Amino acid sequence: MKNVTDSFVLLGYSPAAGSFGFNTDIFATNPINLSVVLGILIFFGKGVYRKQRILSTIRNSEELRGGAIEQLEKARAHLGKVETEADEYRVNGYSEIERAKLTLINSTSKNLEQLENSKNQTIQFEQQRAINQVRQRVFQQALQGALGTLNSCLNSELHLRTVSANIGMLRAMKEKTN
Asked: Which runs of E-coded beta strand occur in the chain?
């Protein structure tokens, strides 16, 4: 340690000249020169090291940014694809719903038409049946009225001839209808 201190002292003071100057002894001044050079290198090297570290951080950030942009583009492309598929499903779903709706409307319309036809046929059948019943009653009442009139006006021989003639006419009518 004393040699290092002596080297500093030797650097600043030259006994031969009695004044301040340089020491030319390489062995004595070498550690001093090395320490000064190392100090300067460390002092100015810190800035260079910091710059390199900052530049490295910036490069890493740029690489990460590029990767993030690439992933973002992929995600946007995937999102566009998914939105297109969703639109297709939505359109297909709406068209399928419309098709089912039209099918249901058509089916219901056909069912209503069939019910209306069945109702009309039933009404016509019931009307025809009622007309036939009324005809039969009118015919029976007319027949009973005619028989009553004939019975009151006719004697028994005329009565038998009229009844026989009427029975013959009824048989003839019955044969025509069959």
From this structure: none
Burial 132-169 (b: 16+ CB within 10 A, else e): eeeeeeeeeeeeeeeeeeeeeeeeeeeeeebeeeeeee
Whole-number Å distance between alpha carbons of 95 and 134:
58
Cα–chain center distance at 120? 46
User: Could you identify the residue written with the tokens 């190392």?
Assistant: 38
Cα 10 to its chain centre, rounded Å, is: 92
Distance CA 127, CA 135 (A): 12
Query: Kind and range of the H or E element at 157?
Result: helix 156-177
Whole-model pTM: value is: 0.36
Mean pLDDT for all residues in the chain = 82
3-state secondary structure at position 14? strand
Name 153's bridge partners.
none
Give pLDDT tens digits for 98-153: 899 999 999 999 999 999 999 999 999 999 999 999 999 999 999 898 888 766 76
What are the phi and psi torsion angles at 19 (to 5°)? -140, -175
Instruction: Give the position of tokens 């036809």.
Output: 117
The DSSP code sequence of 100-133 is: HHHHHHHHHHHHHHHHHHHHHHHHHHHHHHHHHH
d(CA 30, CA 63): 46
